[in-house]
Specification:
This protein is mainly alpha-helical. Helix content is 51%, strand content 10%. It is built from six helices and four strands. The strands form two sheets. Strands 1-2 form a two-stranded antiparallel sheet. A two-stranded antiparallel ribbon has the order 3-4. Helix 1 packs across helix 4 and helix 5 runs antiparallel to helix 6. The protein is globular.
Amino acid sequence: MVVTKSHHCFKLQASCLSHVVGFKEGKPSDGDLDELAGKIAAKWQKLGRRLGISQNVLDDIEANEKEKPYRMLLRWRDTATSTSFYCDLYNALCHDRAGLNNVAKEFCGKETT
């Protein structure tokens, strides 16, 4: 189990567990999400589904937004009911369909050597 100071994350993807001992706290900033958007590129819809965004919303972003990955991440952050943003994002990035384990560890986790 990975524990932050104030939140517990029980649904960790097994493929991502090595080296992670905790998660960043709080909400990702706009700048953080912009940086992450550049790393998820073509997988933004798969990641959005893993984050609980409906296909209708993803289709709307696809049709109407210029910065699709960034807009999807903003939508998720601004509508999420969870308070464990980095844990939820970590799990979505590590999901088999996203396969962004290294991005998950770099962006969400606190690593030890």
